[in-house]
Amino acid sequence: MQENLNAMMRHVREKTQAMLSIVAAKRLYLEQLDVKTAFLHGDLEEEIYMQQLEGFAEKGNEELVCRLTKSLYGLKQAPRQWYKKFDGFMQRNEYFRCNADHCCYFKKVKSSFIILLLYVDDMLVAGANLEEINNLKKQLSSEFEMKDLGAAKQILGMRISKDKQGGTLQLSQAEYIRKVLQRFNMSDAKPVRTPLASHFRLSKEQCPETDEEKGFMARVPYASAIGSLMYAMVCTRPDISHVVGVMSRYMSNPGKQHREAVKWILRYLQGTTEKCLTFRKDKLKLESYVDSDFAGEVDHRRSTTGYVFTLGITAFSWVSQLQKIVNMWL
């Protein structure tokens, strides 16, 4: 379950950062929109009935039920029907749907183009011509109840900052990281310079064995801390990808040494809260880097593979994961 959520979040992050790379490289406008009560716009294809709401039942006809013509929040088909309604609208207005991501739309406009990314009920719109972007906003408002948020400032908990003079875009989670540090009482911790020190030699042998040790670790919010770190890792902090991956191996039965290692990561974040991804005007050149260690995992002697993709000068896709098999070198 957690692996599927991470994969979904990674995909959303990748398309967002790829778009920001294009925006910075081409000096495009970046606007944000929000759809009010998005799921209520979907048209139902099935015959569905619901009981009259308590307090709103028609007197004398309390036994009757209502037939739904529009989707409601809570219906399993509501997200799908909303997407079909939105997709039909975009295609009627001559926007092309990206084959690799069906929530990405683009349209050639004169000598330029417009890109729209859909995040359920949030949208990012990028383009060189502000007039064409405003025209799209009017078209959307005529079909759906919209809220124009102006220049994009925040998406999915990530802060977007634009430096017009320097021509850069920054994607940061400083506010989120401060909340995580405060939640785990690490706001005043002494910062460290590395995500994980070399003296941590973690293995399953450090998992608790006695009832006393297990009782102590049961009171430690280890899984919660790892989950909070994973969100930062997936979105804007590739520098902690490896260590968070290592610490997540012990979520089922963490020991005191594992707890100390997680505290070390939080101390590292305490000293690097403002670290962020920076996008600037540059050639949109796609590059990738990949490497692996040799049997670095202590318990099963498996290797860890890591890769990073950059578009322009900034990373937009990264992974650090344990290999599923043991490689034999002859």
Report on the structure:
The protein has helices at 2-26, 78-92, 130-143, 174-183, 211-218, 222-235, 241-247, 256-271; strands at 29-35, 43-51, 65-70, 96-97, 104-109, 112-119, 122-127, 146-151, 154-155, 158-163, 168-172, 277-280, 286-292, 304-311, 314-322. With 330 residues, it is α+β, with helices and mostly antiparallel strands. The protein is globular and about 65 Å long. Helices cover 33% and strands 28% of the residues. The two termini are 37 Å apart. The protein is built from 8 helices and 15 strands. Helix 6 packs antiparallel against helix 7 (241-247). The strands form 4 sheets. A 6-stranded antiparallel sheet has the order 4-5-6-7-1-8, with helices on both faces.
Concise structural overview:
The chain is of the alpha+beta class.
Name the features.
33% helix, 15 strands, DNA/RNA_pol_sf, 6-stranded antiparallel β-sheet, alpha+beta, 28% strand, 330 residues
**Could you give the count of β-strands?**
15
User: What Rg, in angstroms, do the CA atoms define?
Assistant: 24 Å
Strand content: 25-35%
- Low-confidence stretches are none
Mean pLDDT, all residues: 89
SS content category: alpha+beta
Number of helices: 8
* Helical content (DSSP H or I, runs of 4+): 25-40%
How does the overall form come out from the CA principal axes? Answer: globular
In whole angstroms, the N-to-C terminal distance is 37 Å
Strand order of the largest sheet: 4-5-6-7-1-8
Q: What series of H and E elements makes up the topology?
A: HEEEHEEEEHEEEEHHHHHEEEE
Major sheet description: 6 strands, antiparallel
